[in-house]
Write a structure and sequence with these properties.
The protein is an alpha+beta fold. Helices cover about 25% and strands about 30% of the residues.
């Protein structure tokens, strides 16, 4: 199958009625917020998005995407490659009624003023949410081993000189 550029915006209701499927790429240069969050984006994102209607006649956007980014290891401060793979299921949010009707499995996405959804922003949000909170190599790949992760011990004399915080209560008892 030929890889095509994913459209920037799409009307979810019309796309769901037509049961459209998109499979293609999103250029890495379009992910401005992701580029700020990582050390670098190595390649374009491969994306597959499907539109459809569920049993409640809600428009459903489901898809998968993957991209390769570079992260800085928080142990050794060296850059390493990280595969970021996401899968998602959304339904458009048209107000309070949508929030009450939507099943828990669906995330809600707000359409713009024209009733369209920005697919590039949607995929970028998923990538950012899927980044690790603390980026680190596998222990076997990291140049810092467990022996070097200890930064010292507290001297015993400091621990002995600490006053007991409950000594104040002894005065109240008298």
């Amino acid at each position: 199958m030929q890889k095509l550029k994913i459209p920037r915006t799409v009307d979810p209701a019309k796309a769901a009625q037509k049961r459209l499927d998109y499979e293609g790429i999103i250029q890495a240069s379009l992910f401005k917020r992701l580029q700020v969050s990582v050390e670098g984006v190595k390649r374009d994102a491969k994306v597959s998005i499907s539109f459809g209607l569920d049993e409640q006649r809600l428009a459903v956007i489901s898809g998968k995407a993957n991209i390769e980014v570079e992260l800085e290891c928080q142990r050794c401060n060296k850059v390493f490659a990280h595969q970021c793979e996401v899968s998602f299921t959304y339904t458009p949010n048209y107000g309070e009624k949508s929030e009450l009707e939507a099943p828990e499995e669906y995330d809600l996405v707000d359409p713009n003023e024209y009733g369209e959804i920005d697919l590039i922003e949607l995929v970028e949000d998923e990538f950012i949410l899927n980044l690790p909170q603390v980026a680190m190599h596998d222990v076997a790949d990291c140049s810092v081993d467990s022996d070097n992760m200890v930064f010292g011990e507290l001297p015993e004399e400091i621990e002995e000189k600490k006053p007991n915080p409950f000594d104040v209560l002894k005065n109240l008892k008298k």
